[in-house]
Amino acid sequence: MRNNIVYEGADQLTYEIREIVNVAEKIAKTGIEIAWENIGDPVAKGEKVPQWIKDIVSDITKNDDSSYGYSPTRGLLATREYIAKERNLEGGIQIKPDDILFFNGLGDAISKVYTYLNSKARVIGPNPAYSTHSSAEAGHADAPHITYKLDPNNHWYPDLEDLRAKIKSNKDISGILIVNPDNPTGMVYPKEILKQIVEIAKEFKLFIVSDEIYSNLSYGAEHFKLASVIGDVPGLALRGISKEFPWPGARCGWAEFYNCDKDADFARYAKTLLDAKMLEVCSTTLPQKVLLRVMSDSRYFPYLAERGKIYQKKADIAYDVFSKIPELILHKPNGAFYMTVVFKGGVLNNKQKLLPANRDAWEIIEKIGNTDKLDKRFVYQLLASRGICVVPLSSGFNSDLYGFRITLLEQNEEKFRKIIETIAEAIKEYIK
Hints:
alpha/beta
């Protein structure tokens, strides 16, 4: 090319959660049946959208011609009024409809949150990290994502001393990211820890980003939204319907902005996100109309509670199996539909092997498995030997820990148990 056209942060944009699919598809062609445990799409894993939700979608598409048109840039007023009203009834900070901005899914929101920050402003996030956040933030800065530790020996709670030390040592840090409930660990932040993070943000004059896409899918622990504890600190929460309805293909998410009136810089940043959305005109109209009717339906939250019970039961099954292996660290998740398994220090090395199911599968993963990421080495050998596709913690979630993430989405309980038991058998064989 006449000029360099490559985005400066291009090398930071990685998403192993989907990249491993390309390898698994090649392995499937060798005759190995794949158990897809890599991505959090409930629909792809067979969850049925309730008929009453389908009926609402159908009714709107058949009888409301406005669902085919543009919406206001911020989002439909009636939908934003409903969200603001519900948030205000929960207590904590009070918001108005104009404090809400709709996006085409949280992927769109996350991209804009980082793209339109000042290039020198950094947002520190959790380790393990959700790769959409870590890659977008790193790409924005053209530098490795900065993280604070989630402690696998303490229920995956954040190490607040590590967070404070990183903020003090890096003056470019301008914001703190939390993912609550967390992906990939399934940890739900206790209220007291959220309050302490807010106090740290207040002390260092930072803003907070809270990814709450799984906020209505918690179980076994009470979930507290950022709005309940943020006080007068600037911040924004990200929510959506991808995981809840579930309707990931709708690409419908929104941001709630808090305390724009308390900080002029944060208010200008929030306006920049609105201006950026104006360039696209608006977000998708139909799911915004559906959202209002579904979430206000008396069947909605009981439906989510039943799903939570199912995820909790699978978490119990996985914990029961994996906890019998002393070389692992794990905790039961309390939200979302993931569990993270960590290998204790020194357990993995580059000499360990699993016998592949066939030579063709081995040839596909041989070069990939030759890596200093020891958990990635295990994950790809698990794929070639057992046909189970999980995501390595180090390369998939920007972590210095070795482990992997599984989902709790398999609909057939016996099949799920078999998958977990097969992974456990493979671990024992690998580390013996």
